[in-house]
Amino acid sequence: MRLYSLLAAAKINLYLEIVGSRPDGFHELIMVMQSVSLCDRITVRSIGVDEIRVRCEHPLVPADETNLAYRAAALIKERFPAAMAQLGGVEITIEKQIPVGAGLAGGSANAAAVLVGLDLLWNLGLTQSELQELGAELGSDVPFCVSGGTAIATGRGEQLDAISGIDTLHVVIAKYEAEFVSTPWAYQTYRAEYGDTYLAGVKDWQARQAEVRSGGMVRAVAHRDAQDLAQHLCNDFEKVVLPAHPKTAALKATMAELGGLGTLMSGSGPSVFTLAESEAQAEELATKLRSALPDPDLGIWTARFASSGVQLDG
Ligand code: ATP
Q: Same structural domain for residues 138 and 204?
């Protein structure tokens, strides 16, 4: 086949703890990541010329070599030069549904889909862990976006342990279009304000990981206890992002009062989500949110928890 269409799922962080500062300059994290059914559609198509082309109509998404989807294709091309020489170049079409710069890993999901799509298009026969290793070279969230579902992520976020998630849950996600949080800024500010609480070395990080693995959030997921899960939602980035972004802080406060299971900012923000027990509850919460905050700049989406990251469309 000369064309594959894939769905690339967004993620939310049910738990995000910043544990320490790594020698490679990144932060050491402990997260519980969850795929949701809010997806971009990525199409990879063989073209006769030896080129990588990206088409995307979203005004905030670059269609050049800085696009993470382009970089994913360039990485595969570099590692498997014979495939492209033999089968021709690729045109990548990105149909965006995932809000951009939202803390939902949209770009990482697109890159993950291109890795999976080119593996199919160019008959590379890569395993999921080989795709994830390539993904880790592109960004910390890309390996999770390849496999998706529910996972405990450690290291930079690229070390994954899949766990069995509560796939019946639903979510309302909201984000002000004009709100923007720079992820590097969020890390730098966190380091400046909370660096003195960082655990110092690998042994302490491993001990903390063990505590989190046997702690409230992971237990709640394992026991499929949605109420308990909601009690353990946690995101360290809220401590620096919400004070600096009062509109997003007010959005979180409003969402938390609507009657869902629990509310949290995702990643470094500024999207905020509320968990719901059913699709009907999610729709009801979204309607209530729209009437509480009728600002046309506020984007609101509903989705369900998803058990995969990238999947073939159709
Ligand atoms: P994360 O949760 O991994 O921090 P994010 O959801 O905050 O990511 P993205 O939507 O991935 O952020 O976009 C971040 C920036 O990356 C945007 O400013 C955008 O211009 C750029 N970008 C590059 N490639 C893509 C892509 N394929 N989709 C979206 N944004 C992209």
A: no
Per-position b or e across 213-241, b if 16+ CB within 10 A of its CB: eebebbebbeeeebeebbebbbbbbbebb
In terms of domains, do 182 and 128 share one? Answer: no
> What is the average per-residue pLDDT within 286-302?
98
Number of separate domains in the chain: 2
pTM over 0.85: yes
pLDDT digits (tens, 9 = 90+) for 12-50: 999 999 999 999 999 999 999 999 999 999 999 999 888
Task: Indicate which residue's Cα is closest to atom 27 of ligand 1.
Answer: 107
What mean pLDDT, rounded, does the chain reach? 96
Mutation test residue for ligand 1: of 27, 64, 100, 183, the one with most atoms within 8 Å of CB: 100
Please tell me if the CB atom of residue 108 comes closer than 6 angstroms to any atom of ligand 1.
yes
Contact 98, 145 (CB under 8 A): no
| 229 and 85 part of one domain | no
